[in-house]
Amino acid sequence: MLISFKGTHYPKDVILYAVFFYVRYAVSYRDLEEIMQERGITVDHATLNRWVVKYSSQIAAEARKKKCQVGTSWRMDETYIKVKGRWVYLYRAVDKSGETVDFMLSETRDETAATRFFQKSIDSSGLPEKVVIDKSGANLAGLTNINIYLFLMGFWLSFIDTLQVKYLNNIVEQDHRFIKRITKPMMGFKAFHSAVATLDGIETAHMIRKGQLGQEGIPAYRQFMALAG
What we know:
Elements: H1 12-24, H2 29-38, H3 45-66, E1 73-83, E2 86-95, E3 100-106, H4 111-125, E4 130-133, H5 137-152, E5 161-164, H6 170-183, H7 192-209, H8 220-226
Parallel strand pairs: 1-4, 4-5
Antiparallel strand pairs: 1-2, 2-3
GO biological process, one term: transposition
Keywords: DNA recombination, DNA-binding, Transposition
GO molecular function: DNA binding
């Protein structure tokens, strides 16, 4: 899918480079405005914000389609992100090798949100054989709902094994650190939709960093730009 840049006053490559730089490195919009100025490009921080919000989710959607197949043993956990002065929940899963399975920002941390996250992850990455979670009852209920659905659909041999063993979740907990490091200079988000879009970009850049698009040897920002078509 080609992402439309119609009506923009800057070249496509300039826009995508700025978006990539923001979601890949720990900088503020003010920092990025200065960085772009040093490269001879005058663009204000508000415009940079609009670019990130407008294009990050579209690029992330393409990344989900093109990422390499992940393993069938997953580690799932949530971390906290501040939006409008309050904490919301970033659901994330990686496989046992640390490859990103999927992610989802939610205003709630409950059975409904957990079920929705597992459904989303299965849609993008296939059915796992095993999922390791913490002691969260909501996450356990979410996986139980998925298994009930599989039972009702007649897929008895596809039930997902569930393990609630905290130390086995170290892989995903360590993987959270990259996301938190990038979001720290942002000092929280002003709106939920902009948080979703920005995190889409950050997670996409993180997948590229881990080589999940199968394009080793190609600079990361080039891989990011290619997702725009």
